[in-house]
Structures are given as C-alpha cells and as structure tokens.
Amino acid sequence: MTDIRVKVSGAALLAAIVAVASCGGREPGREVSDDDVREVVITPRLVLGSEDYGDEGSLGIISDAEFLPGGGIAVIDRLACCVRVFSGSGEYLFSIGSPGEGPGRFISPDCIMPVGDSIMVFDMMGGRASVFDGSGAFLGTLTTAGSVPIPCYCEYNGDGRLIGGVTEEESRTHDEIIFAYRVKAFDLTLQPVDTLFTNVFTFTPVDVVGRLRSTSFSCSFTTAPDGSVFVAPASTERYVVMGFDAAMDTLVTITADYPTTPKSPAEIASETERMTSVFSSRNSVVYGGFQPLPDRYMIPPSGLHADSLGRVWVQRGIDEGIVFDAYGYDGILLGSASIEGLGDLQETGPLWWSGSDCGLLAFTMDPLDYPGVFVFDLPGADAFR
How much is the pTM? Predict the structure, then answer.
C-alpha cells in the first residue's frame, strides 16, 4: 500500500477540502433526436490578463485556468510561479503562492483543482499538492510516497475522487526505458484507487515532442458534478469517449464515424510556429524540433468538459473552426456550439481549454501571443430544446 503523508492535521485539511460549493443549481437539459440537433454560437464574455506584464492581474506563461466555486477564476502564471485569482467579472483579487521550496511556494506549478471551498495546486517538480482556502491562505500539503508521482493535471469528480494523469516508469534495460501514462482515480489523500486509461511508450530523452504526445496529449479527460468521469484517447483516426460512473464502472461509450481529416499546409505552418515558440519559452533548445501530425485530432487534448446540466462537451477537432458537440451522460447527441470571437487565435484556436458547469475557459500557453484567458458562458438548459 502506498504510504500517504499529510503535512498538516489530516482531519483539519480533509475537512477543508471536502466542503461542497457550486455555481448554482440548474435543471437537466431535455434530450433531442439526431434529426433535431440545434447549433448555437458562443463568444467570450470577457478576457483576463494585461498586455503590460508586471501590472496587477497580468499573465506571463499560463499553465492552467479553472473556475472557482461561485464563478471566480484562478489562473496559474508559471513565469511568476503563482496563482492569480479574479472575480467572475474579471477584477483581479489576489495572488496565491510564490517561487520557492517552502510551504505554500511552487517550483513549477502545473494545474489548479478546486475542491469545495478550497484550492489545490499541483506542482509535479515540487513533488506535492499545496492546499489553500478560498482567500488564498495556505492550509497544508499532500504528497504521495513510493513510485506514484504527483499528477501533472487533475480534476475533482465531486464524489471524493481526484482524477489525474501521471507518468510512471514500467521497465528499464541498457537500451531503452518504457514508461506508461495513466489516468488514475485518487482519494482525497492522493492514494491511487483505480486506473481508467493507460498509454505505454518508449522514452526517448531528446524527443520532448514525442513525450508530450505520449503523456498529456495522449488523451483528454473530465469529471462531472455527479461523480462521472469521461476519457477520450487523442487520435487522428477514431472518435470515442468512454464514460465511467462514480464507482468507476463503465457508464457509456460515445462514438462517431468521421473520416480522417488532413491538415492544410497553412495549418501545419501555423502549428509549427506556435508550438516551437511554446517549447522555446520553456527550454533554450527545442529538442528534436516540432513536427505537427499530418491529420487533425478527432477529439483534441483538453477537448472534454462536463457541466451540471447533464451534458458532456466534446471538441470536434476535424472542423476548421472550433466546434463542441454536447452529449447527454447517456451518449445522446443534444446539439453543438461554435466558438467565435477569439481574434487572431480563431483559425488555429487556443492550445488549451478547461471547463465546468460555470462555463468554458480558453488560453494559449505561448507567451509571444497575448497571454490572456477567454471566458465563455455555456448555453443554458433551453439551448438545445
């Protein structure tokens, strides 16, 4: 059994992170047939961030952005090694954490996870998750012992489970190292309790791009307020979403029959430029260079999100624009939403999305582009009726 160390009073910390809050109750949307699927257009209601770095609320390199209970928004600025917190209307409120190795500090923060009234910040390089209350006060840290690393991305499923992606060494010989990227379910002390997705790959030290595609970009996953979890392998050939209930048993499988879609030369050139900039901002040398896949993802990484209306939002990666299909938790297609209003990012789209029942957030991790967070409201319960 994995040894779990809670570096604060266990009862006090766990009590703090299980308090439940929400964005307000809503009635589930009614199902519709495939012949009566409605399409809606959604545009950002505001953009977070300042173009002048150093101002309050400015953002340098964005690692993650998440809605907080009540509609506030927390954004990791990897450059400043802190979390910027904004109100739901876009007002900068305060920052959490600072660079360093001490309590409440970050080496290289990866993701934010709201759990009830608390905020957990995962720092894989720091080997811990730091827990703060809603005002930003430090509560304590959670760490795992043994071979299970801290997740580099994590979501709370609302039913006492954290769903996160981890990379683990499988085997090692003189010639090669085999790793596996897994989407695991953890309890609230970071004890792993189940595995929902596994991708085994050969590790090549100089191939940064290959490792990214084999880990964080190998699948997309999301959690729903009722405890359900949805996982989609990132593939250019198949469109499939696997749903699990709160007990981690199979709930539904969603598939669609779409043809493989090649990227245009302009898409490939734009993606190469953008991703090279992203890698260069994190490393002085882009190891191995970046070569885009020739075809579009059926469901891109970070392409799954769930809300409290019983809907799973699935990004349809084969479209030239940015389109999300909305399914019920039972796999029935309800409608679709086209994203507009992203300016220069409209054609290629931001690199990363996050979502909850409070809405959708979109941002680019490229610091040479405007490092802002686009905030969208999701269509209401009547949108697809």
Answer: 0.86
